[in-house]
Write a structure and sequence with these properties.
Layout (H helix, E strand, L loop, with lengths): L9 H15 L18 H9 E8 L2 E2 L5 E3 L2 E11 L10 H11 L3 E5 L5 E7 L2 H13 L6 H16 L6 H12 L45 H12 E4 L12 E7 L3 H11 L3 E5 L4 E6 L2 H11 L8 H14 L19 H9 E8 L9 E11 L10 H10 L4 E6 L2 E8 L2 H13 L6 H10 L1 H7 L1
Antiparallel strand pairs: 1-4, 2-3, 4-6, 5-6, 7-8, 8-10, 9-10, 11-12, 12-14, 13-14
Helix pairs in contact: 4-5, 5-6, 7-9, 7-11, 9-10
GO molecular function: endonuclease activity
Organism: Orbilia brochopaga
Keywords: Mitochondrion
């Protein structure tokens, strides 16, 4: 326990060390309060086994005789930690440790008053972001009390919520059954999970251990050039949502990047690297969204992409930095647009993963027709004006066209006006091959590129 304690109980522990040192001539060092990240050890799992609880929210829809709804159907999950405000022996406050737990989960620390008149610190996690953090943490550092059984039932409903299937008729009966059979209502106890006690590895990498990726495309995503790649991906298919404050309650901003559902593996890989957030699914759009809302995750995002952006979306990042500086006493500098050459980092790789496409044109010849035609093309399409700031994307699209040695075109569609880049000449193809050899793609477009690569590369290599 020495060096692992995080609460005012450290004082009594140090008194024990003093007694042992004096009475038995020992030289046990007294370590300071532990301040490392929660995702580095299983301290929080033990704390939850003591003072945490899991709840499933389920209410049936009820109507009166006239058919008017008197109670709405509701399905959800809640995780809660409740702790006294002051240590009864030292009178020291538990606020610092409870604040840190709330920050880790991306929720607010509140105070509740019970019927006894006593006040307690309360942490409640029920948003998709916060329950995902709880799920990923406890799948890395498991519980060992009977709360482990409650957690496993709770996790089933969490997965329904993340998949947006918690209101499906097939799942509602199971959710009701799980709710009615957990906590004080549990009758059967299976203690097989205790076989893992004492075998948990120290300092495991949170999330990475629990996410199994079958798509080898994403295996080489790392922190090397990650910032510039993530910046390009965000500037192609991302946005930052910041809700206007109403009253005293504040909602964390959301950093979002949308992926086609076939790129779910990439979204999960990025989530594992960032270390906080969740994946929101949009089945109707055949898409999923990487969402980062906890402050610790937002800070990591800023640390990665600040100074790497090249488009008008930099204003969204500036608004996020302003929010953090105001609400969390940070002092983050807003770095300007990146003006370095595109060939020097992976920004364009991320931008192409978002807004690029590869195609092969093949025209067969019939008797008496013209020559057979085979060609390759990289196409990038981007809106002309930013819908939020009305700033133009001309500078960055013109820079890309100059880099690829091709023309910048415009096209007006029903959904608006767009810049178009089509790179297909031999010089352009050589530049593209050289660039992606240094800074590879990581979405499913990597597979399209590898097929596309077969056609131009043999010809260019002979030149």
């Amino acid at each position: 326990m020495n060096s692992y304690l995080r609460t005012p109980k450290l004082n009594k522990f140090n008194e024990l060390i003093d007694i042992l040192n004096i009475r038995h001539g020992l030289k046990i060092d007294k370590h300071p309060i532990q301040l490392q990240d929660f995702n580095k050890d299983n301290w929080l799992a033990g704390f939850i086994d003591a003072d945490g609880s899991f709840g499933i929210i389920f209410t049936k829809k009820e109507m009166d005789k006239l058919g008017k709804i008197t109670k709405k159907r509701r399905s959800g999950c809640r995780f809660r930690i409740e702790q006294r405000m002051f240590d009864p022996i030292t009178n020291e406050s538990y606020e610092p440790i409870l604040k840190n737990i709330a920050l880790f989960l991306g929720v607010n620390l509140t105070i509740v008053k019970r019927n006894t008149g006593k006040e307690y610190f309360n942490i409640t996690a029920k948003s998709r972001e916060s329950i995902t953090i709880v799920k990923n943490y406890l799948n890395t550092y498991p519980l060992f009390s009977s709360k482990y059984l409650d957690y496993k039932d709770w996790e089933i409903v969490v997965d329904f919520i993340l998949r947006q299937t918690h209101y499906d008729e097939d799942n509602l009966d199971l959710i009701e059954k799980l709710k009615n059979g957990m906590n004080n209502n549990r009758k059967n106890f299976d203690w097989a999970h205790l076989s893992k006690l004492g075998k948990t590895k120290k300092d495991q990498d949170l999330l990475e251990k629990n996410l199994n990726y079958n798509d080898i495309i994403v295996n080489s995503v790392s922190c090397n050039n990650l910032g510039s790649y993530l910046a390009g991906l965000f500037e192609g298919d991302g946005h930052i949502w910041i809700q206007k404050q109403k009253g005293k309650k504040t909602h964390n901003p959301r950093f979002c990047i949308t992926f086609g559902l076939k790129n779910e593996a990439l979204a999960k890989k990025l989530l594992s690297i960032i270390g906080s957030g969740f994946i929101r699914y949009k089945p109707k759009d055949n898409a999923c969204v990487l969402v980062v809302s906890p402050v610790v995750g937002l800070k990591k995002i800023i640390n990665l992409i600040n100074g790497e952006l090249r488009t008008p979306k930099i204003h969204q990042l500036y608004n996020l930095i302003d929010w953090l500086n105001k609400n969390h006493a940070t002092n983050i500098n807003k770095l300007p647009l990146n003006k370095n050459n595109l060939e020097n980092n992976s920004w364009l790789s991320g931008f192409v993963d978002a807004d690029g496409s590869f195609s092969v044109q093949y025209t067969k010849t019939e008797e008496g027709a013209k020559k057979r035609k085979i060609s390759c093309r990289l196409r990038i399409e981007q809106i002309i004006l930013d819908p939020v700031t009305n700033d133009s994307y001309f500078d960055i699209l013109n820079e890309i066209s100059l880099f690829l040695n091709c023309n910048l075109l415009t096209r007006t569609q029903a959904r608006g006006a767009y810049y178009i880049i089509c790179a297909s000449n031999e010089n352009s193809l050589r530049i593209i091959l050289d660039y992606f050899a240094k800074y590879p793609l990581f979405s499913s477009k990597f597979l399209d590129y590898k097929d596309w690569y077969i056609l131009p590369s043999p010809k260019l290599l002979r030149l």
